[in-house]
């Protein structure tokens, strides 16, 4: 009976040993597979791809630039100089805009005010310059005229204080930047292109035209034709 038990035990051990050998043989790759794996591994180690999927040989020029302290310093210096130049341009532009805003802020108001100066000038011109001293009414008119003249002068002073200048180009050469020609006339005293009459005075604020002067301009006299 003991012999039967020993025989069964030996048979079970042999069966387990055969099963273990089969499992090991299934897990181990063949020689061809090992060769393929080793060759593929070598190719994979040699060939790499970049971030976009393109094949790369493993060299990177940018890494060399990034690792160069002098190149990094030059790049940072260039960026700093550009930023400083841009900041300086912005500062100058802002300063110029502030100055122009301060100089020309009253342009619209000044354009309306100069009409009042025209009315004062018309009132002054309507009063006779020669009055009889013995006539009481003429004396009052003379006082009125003096008052208008003083008001006009004060008004002109206030305008000049704010950079507003009156343009009276009589006898000057016609300038299309500040004058508006209303007509041309032959004139013996003035040469061609000279302002011979001012219909309405012009104004400018600093170096900008506020209102052109309406003028008459002399033209060249026509020579009499031989009949």
Determine the structural class based on helices, strands and strand pairing: alpha+beta
The CATH homologous superfamily of the domain at 165-227 is named: Head domain of nucleotide exchange factor GrpE
Q: What is the CATH-assigned architecture of the domain at 165-227?
A: Roll
What is the C-level CATH assignment of the domain at 165-227? Mainly Beta
Number of strands: 8
* CATH fold description of the domain at 165-227: Nucleotide Exchange Factor Grpe, Chain A, domain 2
Radius of gyration: 52 Å
- Roughly what fraction of the amino acids lie in strands? 15-25%
| Main sheet specs | 3 strands, antiparallel
Average residue pLDDT: 76
Order of helices and strands: HHEEHHHHEEEEEE
C-alpha end-to-end distance? 170 Å
Count of separate DSSP helical elements:
6
Structure description:
- The chain is an alpha+beta fold.
- Among the domains are: 69-104; 165-227, Head domain of nucleotide exchange factor GrpE (Nucleotide Exchange Factor Grpe, Chain A, domain 2), CATH 2.30.22.
- The chain contains 6 helices and 8 strands, in the order ααββααααββββββ.
- The strands form 3 sheets. A 3-stranded antiparallel β-sheet has the order 3-6-7. Strands 4-8-5 form a 3-stranded mixed β-sheet, with no helix packed on it.
- Strand 1 and strand 2 (55-56) form a beta hairpin.
- The longest helix is centred in the middle third of the chain and has 36 residues, at 69-104.
- The radius of gyration is 52 Å and the shape is elongated.
- The N and C termini lie far apart (170 Å).
């Amino acid at each position: 009976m003991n012999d039967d038990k020993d025989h069964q035990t030996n048979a079970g051990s042999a069966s387990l040993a055969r099963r273990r050998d089969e499992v090991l043989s299934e897990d181990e790759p063949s020689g061809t597979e090992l060769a393929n794996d080793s060759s593929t591994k070598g190719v994979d180690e040699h060939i790499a791809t970049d971030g976009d999927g393109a094949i790369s040989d493993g060299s990177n020029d940018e890494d060399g630039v990034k690792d160069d302290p002098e190149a990094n310093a030059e790049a940072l210096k260039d960026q700093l100089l550009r930023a400083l130049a841009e900041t300086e341009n912005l500062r100058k532009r802002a300063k110029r805009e502030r100055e122009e805003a301060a100089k020309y802020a009253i342009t619209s108001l000044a354009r309306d005010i100069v009409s009042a100066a025209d009315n004062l000038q018309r009132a002054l011109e309507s009063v006779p310059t020669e009055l009889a001293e013995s006539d009481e009414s003429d004396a009052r008119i003379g006082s009125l005229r003096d008052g208008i003249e003083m008001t006009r002068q004060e008004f002109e002073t206030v305008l000049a204080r704010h950079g507003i200048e009156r343009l009276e180009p009589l006898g000057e050469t016609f300038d299309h930047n500040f004058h508006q020609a209303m007509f041309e006339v032959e004139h013996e005293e003035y040469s061609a292109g000279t302002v011979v009459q001012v219909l309405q005075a012009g104004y400018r604020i600093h170096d900008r035209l506020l209102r052109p002067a309406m003028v008459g301009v002399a033209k060249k006299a026509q020579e009499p034709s031989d009949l």
